[in-house]
Amino acid sequence: MQVRDGRGVGFAEWGDPAGPPVLAFHGGPGSRLMATGCERAAGELGLRLVCLERPGFGLSDSAPSRTLIGWADDVADATRALGIEQFVVVGVSAGAPYALACGARLPELVRRVGVDEVQVLVHAADLKDPQDRCGWAGDLQLPALPQGALVQVDHHPQTGGVDERRRDRSRALKN
Prior knowledge:
The protein is of the alpha/beta class. It is built from four helices and eight strands.
């Protein structure tokens, strides 16, 4: 699919096409194929799982001047093209700051933001204290998100899949 500046964005989709949409943002390196193997789980949970590729990954065209917050514009264009009005975003590892950026930039579209394995350093210009040279993504200055909008996504450490004991949290994403 194409975004407003004509670049192509790669994506893959699994689960129930009529289900509540969940957009998953891959780590780095990563791709739209990050959720391969989750097809059955997405269907069982009744979710429409969409994995978008950031610029320069997989099938997505490069965008040398892109910004973290600019990714949200690509997401808005992609969801519009897919006929998705509101959605949940989940970012894994290097994808977590991109999920947070979408929550901050697209509050009318993003219902909830989930993050996992947030271990990404950010540029000093994005920190609360400009004297810091670097900081963790948790130090990003973001507008307030609605209560309950930010959730931690847990995974099973041995299999990499959703821990059955925590499947209830996945259901919360549908609400």
